[in-house]
Amino acid sequence: MQLQIRNLSKTYANGVAALKDVSLTIHPGMFGLLGPNGAGKSTLMRTIATLQEPDAGSICLVDPTNTGHAIDVVRQKDKVRETLGYLPQEFGVYPNVTADRLLDHFAILKGITDRRARKEVVDALLQQTNLYDVRKNKLGGYSGGMRQRFGVAVALLGNPRLMIVDEPTAGLDPAERVRFLNLLSELGENSVVILSTHIVEDVSELCTRMAIINGGRILLEAGPLEAVAELEGRIWRRVIDKGALPQVEREHAVISTRLLAGRTLVHVHADTSPGPTFEVVQPDLKDVYFSTMAGHSLRRCEHPELAAAQ
Amino acid sequence: MTAFREIVGFEVAHYARQRATWIYGAVFMGVAFLAMTSFVSGARGSLFNAPLAIAGSTIVVSMLGLLVTAALAGDVATRDANARIEPLLHTAPISKTTYLGARFLGAFAVNALLLVLVPVALVAAGLAQPLDPEFIGPFRPAAYLGAYALFALPNAFVTTALLFSLATLNRTAVASYVGALVLFLGAMLNEGVVAEAMGRWEEASLLDPFGIVLLRSLVQSWTPAEKDTLLIAFEGTLLLNRALWMAIGVAALALTLVRFRFGHRSPRPYRRGSRLEGVSLKPSVSPASAPHVRRTFSTATRVRQTLDIAGRSFRSIAMSRGAVVLAIPALFMMVAAHNLMVHMGTPLTPTTAYIVSLFVNSGDIFLAIPAPFLIVVFAGELVWRERDAGLSDIADATPVPDWVPFAGKLLGLSLILVLLQALLMTAGILTQAAMGYYDFEVGLYLRVLFGLQLSNYLLFAVLALAVHVLVNQKYVAHIFVLLAYAFTIFARDLGVEHNLLVYGADPGWAYSDMRGFGPFLWPVVSFRLYWAAWAGLLAVAATLFWVRGRQRGFRPRVQLAQRRFTGAVAGAGATALIGVVSLGGFIFYNTNVLNAYTTTSDRMGQRAEYERRYARYRTVPQPQLTAANLQVEIHPERRRLEIRGTLTLVNKTALPIAAVHVVTASDAEVRSLRLDREAAEVRADDGLGHRIFQLATALPPAESLTLIFDLQVEPHGFTNSALDASVAADATYVSHRRWLPVIGYQSSRELQSVEERRTHGLPPRPATPALDDEQARHEMEGAERITVEAVVGTDEGQVAVAPGTLRRTWTANGRRYFHYATDAPIRNDYAFFSAAYAVHEAEWRPSTRAARSGQADVAIEILHHPNHGANLDRMVRGALASLDYYTTHFGPYPHREIRFIEHPGDGNSLHAAPINISYEEGFALFNPTADERKIDLPFAIVAHEVAHQWWGNQVSPAFVEGGALVSESVAWYSAMAVVEQAYGPDHLRRLLNVLRDAYLSPRVRAGVPLLRASDRFTAYRKGPFAMYALREYVGEQPVNTALRRLLEAHGSGTPPLPTSLDLYRELQAVTPNSLQSLLADLFERNTFWELSTQSATAEQDEAGDWQVALDVHARKVVVDSDGVETELPMDDLVEIGIYAAAHGSDNGDPLHLRMHRVSSGAQRITVTVPREPARAGIDPRHLLIDVDLDDNVAGVVRGPAKASRQ
Burial level of B638, CB count in 10 A (0-12/13-18/19+)? Predict the structure, then answer.
């Protein structure tokens, strides 16, 4: 099962070009989509989740062992929805309904008609999302994290083979976040799981492949470890005063700044040492992100198998 | 399928949990109950729970249930978007059909289930009514099931389907409300225009989504027996209508299905050109900082904030879909003005007074409904705006005091209402300009639209906002606001009459050109201020309970309110409270202390009590009035009237009279009242105004006595009811009946309706005495011949009028006096007028023949408002022509002058008292030059009123059945003759066509013969047409001779008074034997002819003439008062007409117009005519009463006659 996205473009009626010729191939497992707000992540997520139509391009769900059997996501929405789990960035619930009743409602809508099987699934999911004890409470009284977990339960109904998760950890406390990521990681075996986020740690902890998107374009597609390895020896740091920042920015390729004990810590991208005041630093995925955003690695690192096939 | 079932079940369960749903159910039941007990009386025969009444109540509930349906449909369609659960739902594998279909079915199921409560309520209404068992029919489940299945359920389906589609496709609940409004107005428009005005009842029945038109046509065309028993059959028009509208509902749903899309809603561009280019976000690496500003929290800031919120609120309403409602009254005015500003088809001059009374008093739904709609819908939207957008947490945390958002939203809503009124005013002015009238009187527009009407709307805006704040649930609050509105409209029916208790109520007002606002303004302003004080209290309550933050429960809100009750808020509340108490006290002092407060049931009770105490004196012989000698002082500014004088009474009976009963009006202050001889006042009932004087010596026959009296009428403050503006600063019009003492038991004070009499335990009485009631022929009340001499004093700038010739006028003490006296006796019907009249004079001279037989000159005077002079020449011409004709053909006019006097009122009725014919201001507005039908209606009406000087004032019929035939019908018959003589037979024919329009609506054919009939339709239409038909058959001279003889016999007014039988006898005497049966058909029997021309063919013969063959069908039936038809064999003379080529809508030049003998059934009539015929028919002039007018005449087809179908 692969998700093949080819030349996807979308421009909104108010002139915003959200996606510009995006192409990706996503294999089963955890795929991270990283990018700032307004990059086009949610548009892409919604398009794959059958909620939006692109202006151009195609998305196909392909079973490589059975080449005749491909589902066109854009044109065969109903078939996709039969095996889709979607956790949106923003959603609400009916406040006057209890969690188990609404989960049961969604289970029926998703096609789990057998009453006993449905009860098992609903109970299991409520357990997994740690909502079992509060399942008889009305959803209007749930906290943000609990509502998020409910959304996860809905998304997981029916063992979806395509799972779209849009900015899932933004509202969760640290413990909830860890639990959520654990839950997701178990799914990655046979399904395509696309995790869209602007939290770099989510991708580095969980994903085997990732893409960085900005301004509607894919800037980088690689495995996280490979991308980090690419930057080995190219990231330098220096602590400066606030007032000195403009001059440093003029002279060097600053990719990120941070405050450290009242002074400013800058990371700079350079193939060789930019100066004695700089010291080299072990890069991490954040550096990959910032340097990509700053325009330093517009290379696309193809999947090793595909690259070999070319 | 399981998903479908699941969604439907989910929906129904959802609504079952809501409080609002149960309140909807209660409202349905309440409305059904009220409809059955109060509103649907016309639909009943005599049975309370007739199937027709049940259906009627069900339809009323359906229509009012539109609001509930709108709320349900709007909620269903937008709930998912509002709860933001759409992304979860739209990615589940359910099809559009399942999703939308199940949603719709859920809403419809809830609606249908709620409507089941309606038959329950109707049955309860039947049980709860304390009626005699004879008025309750058998319990027939079929009636209730039928009403549910034929009306409630299909109506619910159609409305739910249409509103659901609207709300879904527009993705906003407001679309649902607007849709409901459009449906409602459309149905009203259909009924008012297509059915009633255009007379196309068949088409209207199809176009009506609720079934009201159909019901109304059944109500009008079923006999009382049918109304009691017949179930409404599911066939014919009803079947077609239901099928058509169900199809429309299904089509709407199908359209929604096709156009609906799952998925994300992309942002719409709000303005062209505001395209956001893809912003390339270079990651900024320097920290952000905001510039420093100063904040102020002064009063000026608060005002600024309030204005800002007001502007935002105004814009949110003006840009929403519901804003289209603003245009409705204006558009309606522009489109429908021509139909509104007519009377009987003649256009009226669009004076500003007329237009503003249209706006305010006509109750026309298009003009009345937009403001309440805007207030009800948008009060809720405004109060909930932040919460609906999810912005409330942020907004509530801003440093804005609690009263600012309330004041701002109120101001915004008020600005919308101001805009509505401005649009209305513009529409009024444009309409006037379009009709060529340019005296706009903008000041009047402002005072009415922005002063009186807007202040009323603002009161309701405050109420609606306050309810939405206090009741913290949008849909429940909507219902409460609507119930509050309904209460103000129906309070009277529910028994609450005092205006201090009904929000926004006042005693009412009227504006007329003659009287201005008169005395109405002062009480209305007092009440407005009183209710404004209440509105202030509501505003304070709203501020105290303003929802801020997340507190939902009742107790926390009360605690919050208590904490807020400080400083300015408390001050405002105290001020408002003082206002309520002081103004309320002032009003109460006026309505209950200075005047007696009586409810409708009090007044009915008084009338019943009068009858109970004094009806025993009904037959006690009393002296009759022969002369009145009066001194009248009118003080217009103080609205004070003093009447002093003597009444001369003569014993015209054969026995001596022992006691004299004198009745005075209960609101007159009797300063003195005595007889000119010794008499003991054995009864002085001031409350009911009845006095009994026991004469020391009985009054012998033919002797007279004098009643001397002095009374005055002066209002004190104002009352709860609409003011009596008989005496007003600018115009006074007082009928003699109003305050002058009268003699004998007054049976006119008795309760009329059967139900009212039963409630008070009074025996039933017939509405009108029977035709053969000999005693009634001696009842002289209102028909006595008297002489009147009156001196009337009034303000210096005004002219006073009384009956008779003006002998003298003088000035004294700054007042002007007029001395009038009648030259010849007049019927006892007169009035006093006073206003700043302009006088238009003319002179009528009799023909030499009439002058030789004693007829004197007659002065014609028209006293009118200086601006209402458009029709003076027309009126004078009408009077001249009428005097010519009537003195020549009937008899002399016994007085030296005839006057037309305008009096205040925006109706257009006239009253022909002897000598003085009074007319309401509306009559002066007729504009016959703009009448496309080319008839002169005012001229005809003047001729009719002048005719009353003979028929009614000289020949005064007894008050029995059929009496109206002698006065009204003969008066219209006479007017027709005058019109023909002055304008020609073509003009008369056009006028008759207009008068015959009354036949077009479905009419019950059941009835009594003309000789016994007393209703309006018979008197004003059927009677005159019968007389006209007789004239055409028998001839003008014989009929006039009969009338002249009637005048000679009964013109003096000596008892016994004439009845329709006397007229009939004279007509019989002049009718030849061959037409006696026609005379009987027209007058003695309730006859209907059914005449039609099946085909007409013409063939030219060798001589060049044309042989015309008409295949006609004729039938004659007599219908009794229960609607039972009996066919009579026909052997009658009927006019056959053959016409040459037609011009316009006329039939054309008559080639042949003669009587033929026609028998029952089909027959062929052949006629030879010299020229080519175009149209031919039987009774083409509709002389014989036929309900179906269009089938009498057909076009002529050239060719041989078809084989005879005999």
Answer: exposed
Q: Find the helix or strand (DSSP H, E) in which B347 lies.
A: strand B346-347
Model pLDDT, residue B1206 = 46
Please, which pLDDT band fits residue B417 given cuts at 50, 70 and 90? Answer: very high
Complex ipTM above 0.90? no
> How do residues B817-842 score in pLDDT, each as one tens digit?
999 999 999 999 999 999 999 999 99
Sheet with A29-34, side-by-side order of all strands: A84-87, A162-166, A192-197, A29-34, A209-214, A217-222
Cβ atoms B499, B492 nearer than 8 A:
no
Contact B587/B505 with Cβ under 8 angstroms?
no
Structure tokens that stand for A41 in this block: 């992540």
Coil, strand or helix: which one is B544?
A: helix
Interface probe with A: pick from B75, B91, B96, most Cβ of A within 10 Å: B91
Measured from the Cβ of residue B859, the count of other Cβ atoms closer than 10 Å reads 15
CA distances from residue B849 to B857, B883, B887, B890 in whole angstroms, order as listed: 13, 14, 10, 13
pLDDT score of B281 more than 70: no
Phi-psi region of B427 (alpha: psi -120 to 50; beta: other; left: phi over 0): alpha
Q: Do B88 and A96 touch (CB under 8 A)?
A: no
* Cβ atoms within 10 Å, residue B801: 29
State residue B9 phi and psi, 5-degree precision: -60, -40
**B interface with A, Cβ–Cβ below 8 Å:** 2-3, 6-7, 10, 14, 17, 79, 83-95, 262-264, 266-269, 274-281, 283, 285-286
Separation in Å, CA B174 to CA B171, B373, B386, B1131: 9, 11, 16, 67
CA distance B56 to B39: 9
Inter-CA distances, B15 with B24, B78, B102, B168, Å:
11, 14, 14, 18
Q: Which of B285, B289, B552 to mutate to test the interface with A (most CBs of A within 10 A)?
A: B285
**How distant is the Cα of B129 from the closest Cα of chain A, in angstroms?**
42
- pLDDT bucket at B619, cuts 50 / 70 / 90: confident
Q: What is the pLDDT of residues B1114-1162, one digit of tens each?
A: 999 998 887 788 999 988 899 998 888 765 556 677 888 888 999 999 9
Q: With contact defined as beta carbons under 8 Å apart, do B521 and B509 qualify?
A: yes
Distance from CA of A232 to the nearest CA of B (A): 23
3-state secondary structure B1021-1075: HHHHHHHHHHHHHHCHHHHHHHHHHHHHHHCCCCCCCCCHHHHHHHHHHHCCHHH
Task: Provide the CA A116 distance to its chain's centre, in angstroms.
Answer: 34
State which H helix or E strand residue B1116 sits in: strand B1106-1119
Give the closest-approach CA distance of A65 to chain B in angstroms: 25
The alpha carbon of residue B896 and the mean position of all alpha carbons in its chain are separated, in whole angstroms, by: 39
Q: Which of A25-34, B74-83, B623-632 has the lowest mean pLDDT?
A: B74-83
Tokens standing for residue B915? 């000598």
Q: How many CB atoms neighbour CB B760 within 10 A?
A: 16
Question: How confident is the model over B953-966, as pLDDT tens digits?
Answer: 999 999 888 888 99
Question: What 3-state DSSP class applies to A3?
Answer: strand
Are A106 and B277 an interchain contact pair (Cβ–Cβ within 8 Å)?
no
Give CA–CA dist B579/B528, Å, rounded. Answer: 11
